[in-house]
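Figure 6 in text form: structure in, sequence out.
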């Protein structure tokens, strides 16, 4: 087995976890066999991807090829809401859609994309689109105003100022930036050997992390993988509330995100099953209720320990900026140990 280490990724930053998840999903989808995910030992633990052919050249080429495919002019990220509306068709949060005809057109165009991806057996693309969610035509407040954002994943934290949205303002530019690199440049960025934030212009105030880290330059290959990490967090739509997102606790635009850290090597399927599990959620909830309940959920602790989960990292989500277009951000994480050895 070869180990590919994301050497600059530390566990208290959510970006590190999301980059590992997305990298594993991308290279596995690209045909790399025997993919496993783990965390290195010692005081400075780091995320590790392992596979028999997980060399820097192979990893760099698979990630570059993935971005190149998604940067193509006929790929689904390039599809627009309409011929006169350039916003990303598959974004889960869009500006107001005011008419029935507008909703019908949006749904028809989205279904066309989903049918094409299904026919092509593009499982990872479908998994990401499903995990991101969609504008909710079914949710209204008491004034009968549509709550469009309630069908979106809580992990999709692209700020909405000046009409920006996830696919057009983040996914498309990142795809183009990573596709333009050489495979060695992609792998160097992922391994922390070189940091280049093309879409953020290497600015100190760059928002390339898209809510997964504090403002600042983020290598675009790392950011690309991190956004695809959302594909590992399924959501469930609800009639009476916003969508329930795996890995998220609390009300809509606040709350906490949480992820596991484990011993041993996991397949991506094991990762998805643990992330969506009730025991992980219950363990992450400990101490958050006003009365401090949840601290003694022995069943959840035992379930996680039996699967090698040594800790859960819980990230408080904070809001910044204006009330009309807030910026959500996962802050530094708190480590909750399970007691597994």
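Output sequence:
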């Amino acid at each position: 087995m070869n180990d590919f280490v994301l050497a600059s990724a530390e566990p208290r930053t959510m970006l590190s976890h999301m980059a590992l998840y997305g990298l594993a999903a991308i290279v596995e989808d690209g045909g790399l066999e025997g993919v496993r995910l783990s965390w290195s030992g010692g005081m400075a633990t780091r995320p590790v991807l392992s596979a028999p052919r997980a060399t820097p050249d192979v990893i760099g080429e698979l990630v570059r090829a993935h971005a190149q495919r998604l940067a193509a002019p006929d790929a689904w990220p390039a599809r627009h809401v309409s011929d006169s509306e350039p916003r990303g068709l598959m974004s889960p949060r869009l500006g107001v859609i005011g008419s029935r005809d507008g909703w019908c057109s949006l749904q028809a165009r989205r279904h066309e994309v989903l049918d094409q991806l299904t026919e092509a057996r593009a499982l990872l693309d479908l998994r990401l689109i499903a995990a991101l969610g969609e504008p909710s035509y079914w949710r209204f407040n008491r004034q009968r105003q549509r709550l469009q954002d309630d069908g979106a994943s809580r992990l999709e934290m692209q700020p909405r100022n000046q009409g920006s949205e996830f696919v057009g303002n983040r996914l498309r530019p990142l795809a183009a930036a990573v596709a333009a690199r050489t495979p060695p440049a992609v792998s160097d960025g992922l391994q922390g050997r070189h940091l280049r934030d093309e879409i953020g212009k290497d600015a100190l105030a760059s928002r390339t992390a898209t809510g997964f880290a504090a403002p600042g330059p983020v290598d675009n290959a790392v950011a690309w993988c991190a956004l695809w990490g959302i594909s590992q967090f399924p959501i469930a739509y609800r009639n009476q509330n916003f969508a329930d997102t795996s890995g998220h606790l609390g009300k809509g635009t606040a709350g906490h995100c949480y992820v596991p850290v484990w011993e041993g090597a996991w397949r991506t399927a094991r990762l998805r099953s643990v992330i969506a599990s009730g025991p992980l959620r219950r363990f992450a909830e400990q101490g958050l209720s006003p009365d401090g309940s949840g601290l003694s959920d022995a069943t959840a602790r035992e379930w996680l320990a039996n699967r090698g989960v040594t800790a859960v990292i819980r990230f408080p989500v904070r809001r910044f900026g204006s009330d009309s277009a807030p910026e959500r951000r996962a802050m530094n994480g708190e480590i909750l140990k399970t007691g597994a050895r």
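Caption detail: Residues 84 and 219 are 33 Å apart (CA to CA).
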